[in-house]
């Protein structure tokens, strides 16, 4: 296959890219970067993914993220490198194995309604008032009972159980427990993917709902009356009853207490125990889960010592420009010619002008003063080491992380770091800060 065929597919899918090389070159199938096979195309996520000593020139075609460099003879650079690579794999090589519409030893009760092109594997049970939308695939050993509606183009992998009563009971004075009978159902939207051995309980009165585009990895538990918003992701996690999960939330290897609300675009970090509501655009981690940072531009800006914890972090991203240098020089009087467009700068060991290192210190101060600990904090001390030069036009990520806590003195020790676009540390240091005191 010629690379030109791949480029035509990317154009048709409206995936943005820049191609460098010969579109007439041939490629044959695909392989991983770790076990690269000559003549195939592969994917390079980050510069760090390139093995030491890897011969980039031997790669027939590389899909790379922006900023990845190497002597590849043919390269497709795109901000959607993962999506582009796997879309090409599926389009050109994803032939479906021929399988019967209904597998052996599968039972469908009379009230089951199947849409067009539905396929159901072996040893499945669909027993109840069940509707399956067009083009949905149900794999082997799946049990679906009671009142369940599944949308179009879904995939239900082997071992899933959908529609049984959840866990709820009443109790008398002697603590004898009577299970509460459920009368609701389960509603699953379009393009939902349930991994192996997921359990989805039906609602007590209203339905348990999984919105459109929800993706669940293996071994997830969704209790009764949960509402999971569109495009949310669950990975090996458990939602107890009556939780409300906003759109595009991401929950990984975590437990969420019943009746908890998680806002849209929230991220629940690995091994978290969520006992309280989580605001939209918030990252939480830990047991119990505590706010790590805000996303989408909104910042947690009033950390007190009681809210901080080891590992809490905040960051900012800033572009370095000649205007920064001119403004800094105007305030400080640091007119060192190495920082400007001068002959001395081009004769220096760096070969071109470099940014003032103390501009990075300003970025650190910005994160500490406006994000964490934020408003009302007092800077006590700061150390720093400049590890690499920073050039104009580069984008710098500044990260501040809680390293030590001294509540009795109201002091927090922060690791302060700046990184360039290649993920290389350009400055590191340590700050001691007094957070705003409790009111």
Amount of beta strand: 25-35%
Please give the count of helices.
Answer: 5
How many DSSP-defined strands? Answer: 36
- Mean pLDDT level: 92
How many angstroms separate the termini? Answer: 68 Å
The biggest beta sheet, please?
15 strands, parallel
The helix/strand class is: mainly beta
Task: Describe the structure concisely for a colleague.
The chain has 439 residues and is mainly β.
Question: Would you mind describing this structure in some detail?
Answer:
This protein has a 15-stranded parallel beta sheet that branches. A ten-stranded mixed beta sheet has the order 7-9-11-16-19-22-25-28-30-31, with no helix packed on it. A five-stranded antiparallel beta sheet has the order 32-34-35-36-33, with helices on one face. The chain is mainly beta. The chain is flat and about 85 Å long. The mean pLDDT is 92. The protein is built from five helices and 36 strands. The longest helix is centred in the C-terminal third of the chain and has 14 residues, at 357-370.
Sequence-ordered SSE layout with sheet pairings:
Blueprint: H1 3-12, E1 18-20, E2 41-44, E3 61-64, E4 75-77, H2 81-93, E5 107-108, E6 113-114, E7 119-120, E8 125-132, E9 137-138, E10 143-150, E11 155-156, E12 161-165, E13 169-171, E14 177-179, E15 186-188, E16 193-194, E17 199-202, E18 208-210, E19 215-216, E20 221-222, E21 227-228, E22 233-235, E23 238-239, E24 244-245, E25 250-252, E26 255-256, E27 261-262, E28 267-268, E29 273-274, E30 282-285, E31 290-294, E32 313-319, H3 322-332, H4 343-347, H5 357-370, E33 378-386, E34 395-406, E35 411-419, E36 425-434
Parallel strand pairs: 2-3, 3-4, 5-8, 6-8, 7-9, 8-10, 9-11, 10-12, 10-15, 11-16, 12-17, 15-18, 16-19, 17-20, 18-21, 19-22, 20-23, 21-24, 22-25, 23-26, 24-27, 25-28, 26-29, 28-30
Antiparallel strand pairs: 1-4, 13-14, 30-31, 32-34, 33-36, 34-35, 35-36
């Amino acid at each position: 296959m010629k690379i030109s065929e791949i480029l035509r597919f990317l154009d048709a899918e409206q995936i943005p890219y820049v191609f460098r090389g010969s579109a007439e070159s041939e490629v044959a199938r695909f392989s991983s970067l770790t076990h690269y096979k000559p003549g195939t195309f592969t994917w390079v996520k980050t510069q760090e993914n390139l093995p030491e000593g890897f011969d980039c020139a031997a790669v027939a075609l590389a899909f790379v993220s922006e900023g990845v460099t190497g002597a590849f003879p043919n390269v497709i650079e795109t901000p959607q490198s993962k999506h582009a690579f796997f879309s090409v794999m599926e389009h050109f090589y994803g032939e479906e194995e021929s399988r019967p519409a209904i597998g052996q030893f599968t039972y469908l009760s009379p009230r089951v309604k199947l849409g067009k092109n539905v396929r159901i594997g072996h040893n499945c049970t669909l027993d109840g008032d069940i509707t399956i939308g067009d083009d949905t695939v149900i794999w082997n050993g799946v049990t679906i009972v009671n009142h369940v509606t599944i949308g179009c183009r879904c995939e239900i992998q082997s071992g899933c159980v959908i529609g049984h009563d959840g866990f709820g009971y009443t109790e008398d004075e002697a603590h004898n427990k009577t299970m509460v009978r459920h009368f609701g159902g389960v509603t699953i939207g379009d393009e939902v993917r349930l991994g192996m051995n997921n359990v989805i309980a039906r609602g007590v009165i209203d339905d348990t709902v999984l919105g459109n585009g929800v993706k669940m990895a293996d071994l997830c538990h969704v209790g009764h009356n949960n509402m999971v918003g569109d495009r949310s992701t669950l990975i090996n996690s458990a939602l107890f009853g009556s939780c409300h999960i906003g759109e595009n939330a991401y929950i990984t290897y975590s437990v969420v207490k019943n009746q908890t609300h998680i806002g849209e675009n929230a991220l629940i970090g690995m091994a978290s125990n969520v006992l309280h509501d989580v605001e939209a655009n918030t990252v939480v981690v830990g047991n119990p889960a505590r706010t790590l940072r805000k996303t989408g531009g909104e910042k947690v800006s009033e950390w007190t010592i009681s809210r901080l914890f080891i590992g809490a972090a905040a960051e900012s991203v800033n572009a370095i420009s000649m205007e920064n240098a001119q403004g800094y020089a105007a305030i400080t009087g640091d007119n060192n010619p190495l920082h400007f467009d001068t002959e001395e700068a081009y004769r220096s060991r760096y070969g071109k002008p470099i940014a003032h290192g103390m501009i990075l210190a300003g970025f650190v101060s910005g994160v500490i003063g406006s994000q964490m600990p934020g408003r009302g904090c007092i800077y006590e001390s700061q150390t720093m080491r400049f590890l690499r030069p920073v050039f104009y036009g580069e984008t710098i990520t500044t990260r501040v992380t809680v390293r030590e806590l001294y509540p009795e003195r109201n002091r927090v020790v922060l690791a302060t770091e700046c990184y360039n676009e290649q993920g290389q540390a350009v400055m590191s240091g340590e700050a001691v800060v007094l957070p705003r005191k409790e009111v």
